[in-house]
Design goal:
Blueprint: H1 15-32, E1 36-38, H2 43-49, H3 54-71, E2 76-82, H4 83-88, H5 93-98, E3 104-109, E4 137-142, H6 151-165, E5 171-176, H7 210-224
Parallel strand pairs: 1-2, 2-3, 3-4, 4-5
């Protein structure tokens, strides 16, 4: 489903919608000159249901990219894909199609939804990305639920496994999903599984999980380097 302001046709092919979308990206870039600007989050999920919208979207990204660069040349433009679904649906062609339209490829990754333990992730789980894109990667969301049988230790092991599997890759950023656990009250399960509520680095009361101590150590290490 595409949202649009009143009076504008919610269609990626509609000239009025396209003009408004591009202008919104341009105005945000002009006002804030952000270091990064995303032109869509987990967009591959949408195109599974609406494949005919892919071509209009790609041209929209190209036009918005140009508009952003005119007012904020240093802003890095990205589009974010769900890595879980990219793998499940064999959507590798999207990486090729985006290659010359963005500065970064953005990804979200939640392997706990597929694998029983972090050690089950194949050695090339992330490295296979290099077969389809040479762009730097931005992991805008990563996480592992602490609701499993091994709980918080398993969550910490995922972070270490992620670092192992992405070693040597060109990563622009890595962001953990949440700082604090949440009950996700009122959010439908089809949007966020209940286990998502325990993906955070800290518990609801603010106390630190094992994974947070590793995360903090990584930040300190990066700061001292």
């Amino acid at each position: 489903m595409i949202d649009a302001p009143e009076g504008i046709t919610p269609s990626l092919s509609d000239p009025g919608f396209r003009e408004a979308w591009i202008e919104e990206a341009r105005s945000l870039a002009e006002e804030f000159t952000p270091e990064y600007l995303s032109l869509g989050n987990e967009v591959n999920d949408y195109f599974l249901l609406h494949p005919s919208d892919l071509e209009p979207y790609l041209s929209l990204v190209s036009e918005a990219y140009s508009a952003v660069k005119l007012v904020s040349p240093k802003t890095k433009v990205l589009v974010v894909l769900s890595y879980n679904h990219l793998l499940q649906e064999n959507q590798w062609d999207l990486l090729t199609l985006l290659e010359n339209r963005v500065d970064l490829i953005g990804l979200t990754t939640y392997p706990y939804q597929v694998f029983a333990s972090p050690e089950d992730l194949p050695q090339d789980y992330y490295l296979r990305l290099s077969r389809y894109t040479r762009k730097p990667l931005a992991f805008t969301e990563i996480g592992w639920s602490s609701s499993g049988t091994s709980g918080e230790n398993e969550q910490a092991r995922f972070l270490l496994r992620f670092l192992e599997l992405t070693k040597g890759m060109e990563l622009e950023m890595v962001n953990w999903l949440f700082l604090h656990d949440t009950t996700l009250t009122g959010i439908p399960a089809y949007i966020a599984h209940p286990d998502t509520g325990t993906v955070a680095l800290k518990r609801v009361d603010g106390s630190e999980k094992e994974v947070y101590r590793i995360w903090k150590a990584l930040k300190e290490l990066k700061g001292s380097g």
